[in-house]
């Protein structure tokens, strides 16, 4: 690779790192409850060798009953060894693999027979992708699964062209994707046999290494598969519903769910409408990518190769995880699509500049710069204020304030809607206490949860505290602290009983 290309690639990596690490503990403004759960289970593993439920080094973490896969939690445990039980420690693995994904993206494109400039463009598009950096800036397991899948695919293709033995680490990364996130597990399990089918002639030349890779892959998953099936079942039950439980015709529901992941409104205009998954006012892809994606699809269909088959089938597979649930499209479950869209866009850009009108480059640069600047403005200025509640902002601040004053009070009564995981993480609650009491969070030391059926009463001679949501009505003369979110809206109130 030329020195100029290396320099450009270095700038792309630097840009990717800035977008993923800048103010990472401030925006998003708060650990959402899945991040807090990951952080606490990592803390529990480091302290006791067991998760919060008392399972020794589990391959599936029960957590809230959503059965989290283990890879990200163990990476967070390692991060906490260095940075302590901090918000940064739980978000660091995601941001780091987010940057590495941009790096591996370049090398994957090289193995897909794309030219050097096009590989740099694809890597740049991944670096500035709002879809990707949205999930790289928080502790999302899906981001780790995405990296493992891309790395596995790159090494798989490289093993066919360069070193046969690279098929072994390829299968290790594929297994890592399955250990990371349910959606990545689905797409990886489908992608592997399709790769075997597409590259069956090349695989015949390396069949010994492939067999060893498959054996290793199966051994890694053998003891884990029963737990994974239980986890997948629990996950579907938690998110509740799959497309078979929707009203109407199951085939129509599946079809509509699937096609929703390719809608222009979702991809280019408004994105996922969950405040944790996007800014909601702009698409998962930039609007300017619409013509480049269409041009990329046209080019691949007109110039059919094995590489184009991989790209198009990979994109079609990526829509399946959100399709089988009731919420579709879904940017998190469908994160596996992001790199296919960027590859298509890079190919389309080249096709437009090379075959249609080279002068369009003069227009493209300011348009791309403006789109990036607009998204940065929305994300860093407006987003943390507008969607602080989606990130459960205020729970950490409330817990820390209670910790500062708790020595002067006998009991702390907490309204039932306050997530216990924040008390567990930021107090923190000793994991052994939960493990010894069969994970009974109803009464954790001074904390007692209540609802309207058992409202706490003032105990004569005691000084007690009351933690309630902002809407809860109580004697304002006894208000000690109002807990505000990033944008200034009230989240919780703390009263003295």
Would you write up a description of this structure?
- There is one protein chain.
- By secondary structure, the chain is α/β, with parallel strands linked by helices.
- It has two domains: 3-386, no CATH class; 394-496, no CATH class.
- Helix content is 59%, strand content 6%.
- The chain has helices at 3-21, 33-48, 71-83, 87-111, 116-127, 130-136, 141-161, 167-178, 182-198, 200-204, 207-222, 225-238, 250-260, 264-269, 289-302, 306-318, 320-323, 338-356, 360-386, 395-405, 420-426, 431-436; strands spanning 411-415, 443-444, 447-450, 464-469, 479-484, 490-496.
- The protein has a six-stranded mixed beta sheet with strand order 2-3-1-4-6-5, with helices on one face.
- The protein starts with a helix and ends with a strand.
Residues in helix, %: 55-70%
Cα end-to-end separation:
70 Å
Mean pLDDT comes to 91
Count of alpha and pi helical runs = 22
Strand content: 5-15%
> Structural class, from secondary structure content?
alpha/beta
* Integer count of domains: 2
Regarding quaternary structure, how should these chains be classified?
Answer: single chain
* Inertia-based shape: globular
Q: Which sequence of SSEs, written as H and E, runs from N to C?
A: HHHHHHHHHHHHHHHHHHHHEHHEEEEE
The spatial strand order of the largest sheet comes to 2-3-1-4-6-5
């Amino acid at each position: 690779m030329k020195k100029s290309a290396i320099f450009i690639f270095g700038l792309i990596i630097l840009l990717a790192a800035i977008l993923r690490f800048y103010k990472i503990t401030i925006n998003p403004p708060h650990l959402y409850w899945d991040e807090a759960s990951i952080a606490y289970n990592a803390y529990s593993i480091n302290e006791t060798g067991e998760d919060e439920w008392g399972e020794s080094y589990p391959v599936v973490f029960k957590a809230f009953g959503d059965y989290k896969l283990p890879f990200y939690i163990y990476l967070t445990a390692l991060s906490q060894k260095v940075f302590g039980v901090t918000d940064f420690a739980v978000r660091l693995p995601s941001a780091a693999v987010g940057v590495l994904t941009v790096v591996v993206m370049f090398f994957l494109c090289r193995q897909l027979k794309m030219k050097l400039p096009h590989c740099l463009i694809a890597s740049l598009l991944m670096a500035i992708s709002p879809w990707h950096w949205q999930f790289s800036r928080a502790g999302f397991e899906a981001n780790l699964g995405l990296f493992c899948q891309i790395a596995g695919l790159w090494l798989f293709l490289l093993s066919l062209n360069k070193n046969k033995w690279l098929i072994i680490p390829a299968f290790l990364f594929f297994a890592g994707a399955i250990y990371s996130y349910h959606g990545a597990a689905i797409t990886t399990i489908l992608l592997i046999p399709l790769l075997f089918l597409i590259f069956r002639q090349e695989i015949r030349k390396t069949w010994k290494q492939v067999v060893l890779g498959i054996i290793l892959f199966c051994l890694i998953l053998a003891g884990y598969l029963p737990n994974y099936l239980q986890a997948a079942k629990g996950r579907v039950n938690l998110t509740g519903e799959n497309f078979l439980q929707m009203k109407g015709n199951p085939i129509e529901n599946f079809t509509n769910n699937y096609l929703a992941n390719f809608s222009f409104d979702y991809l280019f205009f408004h994105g996922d409408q969950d405040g944790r998954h996007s800014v909601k006012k702009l698409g998962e892809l930039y609007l300017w990518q619409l013509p480049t994606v269409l041009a990329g699809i046209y080019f691949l269909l007109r110039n059919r190769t094995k590489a184009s088959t991989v790209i198009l089938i990979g994109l079609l597979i990526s829509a399946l995880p959100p399709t089988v649930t009731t919420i579709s499209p879904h940017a998190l479950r469908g994160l596996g699509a992001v790199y296919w869209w960027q590859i298509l866009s890079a190919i389309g850009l080249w096709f437009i500049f090379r075959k249609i009108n080279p002068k369009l480059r003069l227009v493209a640069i300011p348009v791309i710069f403006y789109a990036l600047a607009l998204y940065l403005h929305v994300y860093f200025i407006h987003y943390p204020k507008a969607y602080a509640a989606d990130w459960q902002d205020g729970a950490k601040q409330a817990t820390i304030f209670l910790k500062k004053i708790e020595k002067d009070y006998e009991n702390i009564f907490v309204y039932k809607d306050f997530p216990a995981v924040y008390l567990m993480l930021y107090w923190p609650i000793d994991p052994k206490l939960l493990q010894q009491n069969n994970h009974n969070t109803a009464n954790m030391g001074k904390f007692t949860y209540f609802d309207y059926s058992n409202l706490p009463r003032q105990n004569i001679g005691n000084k007690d505290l009351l933690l309630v949501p902002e809407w809860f009505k109580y004697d304002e003369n006894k208000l000690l602290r109002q807990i505000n979110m990033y944008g200034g809206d009230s989240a919780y109130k703390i009263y003295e009983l």
